Backbone:
């Protein structure tokens, strides 16, 4: 029995450290800033272990029963901790409170274990010997955990399954002890039953970890999903690898934090500097991530930005989540920004008002629903909110991969009575990417470089001149106009991208 | 939703040509509560059939003109009169709603057709129709004298698909052409021979409205045989092509190629030669509520005196005035007076209204056959794509039904919480009166099973996504141009005014239940009426 108890010290130590590491890893995934997350979680965890140790002094009777009970509790709290945090993250505002609550519970319970064990063993082993043996088993377990956690468990099992797995280990200890020391236990039946139930529950967790973490998506994207939610309109997934975040809407990459500045600077600054006077009233269609708004807010002349994005989940996520709000410099919380959660087409039809600048940043026209937002009817409806000098920019997919699609947007804008000026640039995550400037009047040639904000990482007037040149491989023959009754753009887009990808 | 709650949430709307009955579906005991409405219109309509009607209790209002029936023909006639300055017109409608075959339903913000659901873009010679569409901004202008259609009203892409050999394929005719190229080419060539035939006056024989064509020798010969025999005689036997021809006839006329005349069959394929500045010639105009939209805009063009829930049951000419006996759903009867009257009801109603004045009408309309229809709208909770890339028109090869229409197709929103579809079927496998009997005696479960069985085969799980069902049983759905219809020598007499007091307008007088024909018949009757006033 002695050896068994000492071996269980090792297992307990391994499990304890694994829960701690899992919580730390999860917090870094979900909240970013791994140094802070790891320090605070380890600190909190150790402190709580101390509380557990302190509490152990009040336990005087039925030590073995309490020890087994503690094992079961550690198993269930620690085992489910990762899954719980993953599931709760999108749904609760005070994620940190839950995180530290779980970490504290695990810490207290783990803190109880060793003192309890020592109290049990002190009658059988001399004190000095006891300390040395218990701690050597303890630290050996810790070493094991710290090696297998990053090298074996996370890569092969994933975080959630790892936690469930070690939860099972904890409960196994309880189960084995229930059998071996059955004669010394007072509540043997109740404990055995609990152990079996919890073990089965955690084992189910191992089996169904995939559904819990949407590992299917992780596999497809090959990245760690830190947030995923299905809004009524789309599946929003945020992933993180090292320092880079990526946002996917319905599986399509929207931005990568490594290079989104290239995309958004190129989207916003050309028309802001080409507008004949200082732009004041700006309309953003789409762009619920607030990144375009972040660039627009760099112009002090801008008095108001109306941002129309269908999805409340998107705009809410990007205005309230600290990590994402940091990304868009809290643009969606700005007093200048008015968020409208409505369908752009429907909103435009009923809206009266004129804008100096209109930024059209919709997802690519990959289906008939979104395709409507690229039709001549849409652009004609949009024309109602323009005045003569208004400049519009439309993100228009890749002129290199999908030249027909790109020039189709151009032709459609022209057919709706806009003068256009296409340009393009290179964005590593997307490849060669295209935009089209459009205005009821001719697009001005004069570039007001004095307006350009200082802090830009990529965009300069010289770079813009280069953006206006199109190589022969980005050109195409005449294309049709995209209309509601032909949706030719969706067909072009599908054809060109599927050819490119296969 | 399981099958049982699905059944219990069904609101069944039974419409015979006599009127509308909103009937609670829950006759079966195991079902839980459902909504239940029986409109009085059906009772009213039935009164006309049994002849159990009172002598009018009192004298009622006097109008310039009374129009009986608020379908497209009646509304068009009233519209025409109003444009000519005749404002004091009453329109009598037995149903609670107007529109006849073009009426439509609504639930929350979603609208859907009860019957007719599209209008092909107009032929250039159809000037009155073009004018009507222009007035209501469906045609927004002209380029090189060709109408420019409002793109909100043109059917959005993707338009049609066919479920054939286990999968959905884009395009109906194009799929047939792809899988049966030789047969389809032969078919197209054959029809092409008839496309440009002209009569002695130099008018196309096959054109819309049909009035110019059917008295011709060629057309009468084609009227004498079924479209099926015509195809057989011309050695068109390929299954796919025969199915396609049959499907088109059922879709357009409510009966298959065995019943429909070769004349009408060919008419369907060659009579349309519309041109437009911004749409291909085979483009359709459509709206969420189908032709209910056209009814809505016609309504804005007509008098305020729309008298619904009221049955006209007798018409007499007395002292050069028309006296129309009417009874409403509260059983109050009276006599309305007018200088003249336009009867815009189908002939099986008209004959009863005129049983004293013109009893021979019954004889004249012996060969008028009306196809029974079943039209079922489902509101689906799904946005998850159970319909997988739904098109506007979704047809199942070889099915009994005509497939379904996506009523949410024309919405500009990129996302909708619900998808609304309307499923159509005709009871073409039996004689109309038997089909009618079967239809009107169907239990809710039979109707739902019929829809479910077919839709589940292509969209497994669709029933569990269904939130609401609205079924319309059209006992006398629409006139069918069956073999020999145009050989009826009484057709002209049926249209002819009586004593310059009573005029006739209905698409069944054309033999084709089409918006264009109803619109034309309404205008024609109104013009005849106005003509009599010029002479006075």
Residues:
């Amino acid at each position: 029995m002695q050896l068994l108890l000492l071996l269980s010290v090792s297992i307990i130590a391994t499990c304890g450290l694994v829960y701690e590491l899992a919580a730390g890893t999860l917090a870094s995934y979900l909240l970013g800033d791994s140094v802070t997350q790891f320090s605070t979680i380890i600190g909190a965890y150790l402190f709580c272990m101390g509380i557990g140790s302190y509490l152990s002094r009040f336990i005087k009777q039925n030590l073995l029963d309490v020890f087994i009970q503690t094992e079961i509790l550690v198993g269930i709290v620690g085992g489910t901790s990762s899954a719980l945090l993953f599931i709760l993250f999108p749904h609760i505002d005070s994620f940190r409170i839950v995180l530290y609550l779980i970490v504290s519970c695990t810490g207290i319970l783990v803190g109880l274990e060793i003192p309890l064990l020592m109290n049990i063993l002190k009658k059988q082993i001399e004190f000095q010997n006891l300390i040395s043996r218990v701690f050597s088993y303890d630290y050996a377990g810790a070493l094991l955990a710290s090696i297998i956690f990053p090298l074996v468990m996370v890569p092969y099992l994933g975080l959630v399954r790892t936690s469930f797995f070690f939860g099972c280990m904890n409960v196994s200890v309880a189960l084995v002890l229930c059998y071996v020391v059955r004669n010394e236990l007072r509540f043997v039946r109740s404990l055995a039953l609990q152990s079996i139930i919890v073990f089965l529950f955690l084992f189910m967790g191992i089996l169904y970890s995939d559904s819990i973490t949407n590992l299917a998506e992780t596999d497809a994207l090959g990245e760690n999903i830190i947030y995923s939610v299905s809004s009524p309109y789309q599946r929003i997934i945020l992933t993180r690898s090292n320092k880079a975040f990526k946002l996917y809407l319905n599986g399509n990459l929207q931005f990568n934090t490594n290079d989104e500045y290239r995309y958004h600077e190129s989207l916003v600054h050309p028309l802001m500097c080409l507008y004949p006077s200082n732009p004041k009233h700006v309309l953003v269609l789409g762009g619920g991530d607030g990144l375009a708004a972040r660039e627009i807010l760099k112009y002090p002349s801008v008095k108001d930005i109306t941002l129309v994005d269908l999805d409340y989940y998107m705009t809410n996520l990007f205005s309230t989540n600290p990590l994402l709000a940091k990304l868009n410099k809290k643009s969606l919380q700005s007093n200048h920004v008015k968020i409208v959660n409505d369908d752009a087409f429907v909103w435009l039809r009923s809206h009266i008002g004129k804008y100096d600048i209109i930024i059209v940043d919709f997802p690519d026209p990959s289906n008939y629903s979104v395709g409507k937002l690229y039709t001549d009817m849409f652009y004609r409806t949009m024309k109602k909110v323009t005045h003569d000098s208004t400049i519009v920019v439309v993100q228009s997919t890749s002129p290199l991969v999908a030249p027909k699609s790109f020039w189709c947007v151009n032709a459609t804008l022209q057919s709706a009575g806009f003068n256009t000026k296409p340009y393009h640039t290179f964005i590593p995550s997307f490849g060669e990417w295209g935009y089209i400037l459009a205005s009821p009047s001719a697009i001005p040639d004069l570039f007001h470089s004095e307006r350009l904000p200082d802090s830009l990482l990529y965009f300069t007037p010289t770079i813009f001149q280069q953006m206006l040149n199109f190589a022969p491989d980005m050109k195409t023959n005449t294309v049709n106009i995209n209309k509601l009754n032909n949706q030719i753009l969706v067909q072009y887009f599908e054809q060109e991208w599927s050819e490119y990808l296969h | 939703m399981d099958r049982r709650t699905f059944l219990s949430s069904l609101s069944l709307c039974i419409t015979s040509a006599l009127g509308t009955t909103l009937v609670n579906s829950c006759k079966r005991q195991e079902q839980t509560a459902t909504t239940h409405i029986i409109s009085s219109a059906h009772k009213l309509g039935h009164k006309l059939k049994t002849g159990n009607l009172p002598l009018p209790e009192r004298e009622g209002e006097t109008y310039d003109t009374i129009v009986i029936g608020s379908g497209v023909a009646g509304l068009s006639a009233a519209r025409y009169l109003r444009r000519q300055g005749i404002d004091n017109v009453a329109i009598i409608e037995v149903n609670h709603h107007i529109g006849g075959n073009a009426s439509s339903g609504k639930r929350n913000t979603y609208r859907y057709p009860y019957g007719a659901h599209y209008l092909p873009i107009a032929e250039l010679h159809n000037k009155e129709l073009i004018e009507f569409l222009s007035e209501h901004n469906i045609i927004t202008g002209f380029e090189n004298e060709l109408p420019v259609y409002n793109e909100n009203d043109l059917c959005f892409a993707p338009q049609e698909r066919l479920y054939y050999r286990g999968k959905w394929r884009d395009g109906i005719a194009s799929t047939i052409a792809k899988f049966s190229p030789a047969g389809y080419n032969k078919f197209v060539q054959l029809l092409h021979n008839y496309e440009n035939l002209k009569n002695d006056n130099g008018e196309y024989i096959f054109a819309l409205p049909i009035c110019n064509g059917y008295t011709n020798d060629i057309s009468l010969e084609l009227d004498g045989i079924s479209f099926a025999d015509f195809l057989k005689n011309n050695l068109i036997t390929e299954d796919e092509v025969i199915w396609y021809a049959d499907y088109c006839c059922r879709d357009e006329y409510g009966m298959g190629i065995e019943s429909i005349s070769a004349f009408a069959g060919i008419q369907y394929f060659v009579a349309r030669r519309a041109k437009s500045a911004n749409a291909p010639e085979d483009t359709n105009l459509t709206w969420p509520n189908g032709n209910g939209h056209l009814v809505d805009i016609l309504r804005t063009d007509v008098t305020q005196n729309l008298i619904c829930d009221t049955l006209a049951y007798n018409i007499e000419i007395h002292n050069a005035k028309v006296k129309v006996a009417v009874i409403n759903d509260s059983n109050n009867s009276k006599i309305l007076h007018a200088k003249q009257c336009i009867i815009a009801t189908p002939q099986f109603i008209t004959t009863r209204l005129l049983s004293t004045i013109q009893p021979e009408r019954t004889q004249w309309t012996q060969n008028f056959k009306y196809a029974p229809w079943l039209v079922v709208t489902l509101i689906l909770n799904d946005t998850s794509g159970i319909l997988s890339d739904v098109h506007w028109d979704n047809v199942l090869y070889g099915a009994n039904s005509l497939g379904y229409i996506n009523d949410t197709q024309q919405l500009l929103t990129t996302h909708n919480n619900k998808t609304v579809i309307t499923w159509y079927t005709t009871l073409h496998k039996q004689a109309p009166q038997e089909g009618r009997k079967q239809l009107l005696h169907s239990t809710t479960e039979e109707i739902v099973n019929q829809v479910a069985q077919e839709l589940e085969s292509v969209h497994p799980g669709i029933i569990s996504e269904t939130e609401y069902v609205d079924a319309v049983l059209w006992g006398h759905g629409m006139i069918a141009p069956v073999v020999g219809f145009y050989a009826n020598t009484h057709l002209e007499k049926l249209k002819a005014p009586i004593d310059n007091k009573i005029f006739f307008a209905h698409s069944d007088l054309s033999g084709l239940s089409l918006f264009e024909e109803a619109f034309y018949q309404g205008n024609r009757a109104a013009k005849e009426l106005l003509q009599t006033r010029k002479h006075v």
User: Anything to note?
Assistant: The longest strand of chain A covers residues 386-395. The CA atoms of residues 81 and 420 of chain A lie 55 Å apart. Chain A has 18 helices and eleven strands.
